[in-house]
Design a protein that fits this description.
With 618 residues, the protein is an alpha+beta fold. Helices cover 41% and strands 21% of the residues. Strands 17-18-16-19-20-21 form a six-stranded mixed beta sheet, sandwiched between helices. Strands 2-1-5-4-3 form a five-stranded antiparallel beta sheet.
Length: 618
Amino acid sequence: MDAQAWQELLDHLACGVVLFDAEDRLVLCNADFRRLYPALAGELEPGIRFEDIVRRAVARGLVPEAAGREEPWIAERLREHAEPAGAIVRRMPDGRWRRIVEMRLADGSLLAFSFDITDQVVKAEQAERALAQARLASERLDDAIAALPAGFELWDADERLVTCNAELAHLYPAIADLLQPGASWEALVRANHARGGLPVPAAELDAYIARRRAERRAAQQPTTQTTADGRWIRTIERPTRDGGLVAVRVDITEQRAQRAAAEAATARLHEAIEALPDGFALYDADDRLVVCNARYREIYAASAAAMTTGMRFEDMLRYGLAQGQYPQAAGREAEWLAERLHLHRNPGSPHLQQLPGNRWLRIDERRTRDGGIAGVRTEVTELVRREQQLVELNAQLDAARARLEEVSETDALTGIANRRHFDRRLTEEWSRLARHGTPFALLLADVDHFKRYNDRHGHLSGDRCLRRVAQALLACARRPTDLVARYGGEEFVVLLPHTTPDAAATQALRLLGVVDDLRLPHGDSPVAPFVTLSIGGACARPGHPEGPEALLQAADRALYRAKAAGRHRVEFDGSETAGGGGIGPAGRPGLAGRAGRKRPAARQARTVHWTVRVRARP
């Protein structure tokens, strides 16, 4: 076979092959060897010395383990190469591992093979790590078993002790010295009994051992045993895959005492809840019923069938709605349900709830620390009924008071406001004038020659006349704020808020006209054949230092002048004139004359007079 064929054969090998002559110069190498050092592939030609290959590989960083100690490493590698003594394992630049075997041939040349052992190295490393982890886990398990606050024991398939911790000896002090690997389970039980650590009658010991052996192998539920000194031991036993048994023992003496105390406290709490005169219910964080007392079931008798532990509050509400238990929900069940659930889930102030028969509850609910809801229902039917009665009585009193006030401010004869009502309104308007500068006018009207009317027609006719005049004046008051009141006898007063002197004069003429239009016959009046009025008026404007009494006196003076001037006319006494000549109401004789408007020459002269005269009809 020629050299080329040999080379092709070597290149197909799955390992690196290299041959150096006796002078340590490269003779040949295959493709796998060249792939190990790609940076030197072009330089691996026959004749290159081994040392040169090594130095170039180190210089170009192809030997990771030589980093930082290049010369010592090169010297060591040259010694290994000169005197090959065994396989060399080396990590290659690409991270893979190679096993290098060098051997001297008879002619002094050196043949070397390089095999990829990356998989073997990785597996070996994994195995080493697993072994280390197993050792660590075993140590940790031993530490954990020793540190357990419970007794631990491991038995083999022959019921012989494999290992146990110190806590087990504390639990069974009578046989602590016997708890050694290899000890028989049955022998330990009999020794514990013999030393007084197992409170079982001697005649029953064999039966006890048989029963316990069956329990250990069944390994279903934890078992509980008592010791001679009154302690309680809870044991959990489970079989292992190899037929052995592992057991954990815990001293639960304190827990049993605490549980007994808790059960007693719970019993007392339930007794206290049942003794409550009010209904009590407790719901958990999911709004499900935990407990309720008999009074609660009695209050909500229609829903009692649904009051089972775990029932949702909303479901009980819906059940009660279906039974007609909540009168307040009638006709608006969906809205009522939403409102009640909101109050229940967002507890705050107590609220009332109605039950059939006009019964009432006071509901007070609070959140518990674990997110539940505790609620108390107190029967307050009597209180609510009394309150209802009080509300009804108060309404009647308010109506009576309003009626009394109306009667106290109403003139009994004419049915319009009386003097008391007028006095109150006059004071209010004067205060409004002082605060806001709002003007108002006051008219005093007197039925002309009313004494003669009574003498001629009689007092009953006089009363009817006053009622007709009062209603006519009242009908003339067009604004809600205007007030028409009987001032006394045959005198009437008209209060006109927000009224100027000109507007007051117009209203006075209108009052004269509406009484004229009544055409009430007067058989003894020198003024006219029918009933007429005389009116005196005054206006209050901002800046008046006088009080309401002064305004009344001014209007009274104006009325006196109207009477003195012949009656059936209007006279004003005010701070300013209405000004200009006027006319009477349409269709009737006009004003006989009116003083021209003029202002006082000085502020001290506050009163200016004008007269409105109306001629009597023929």
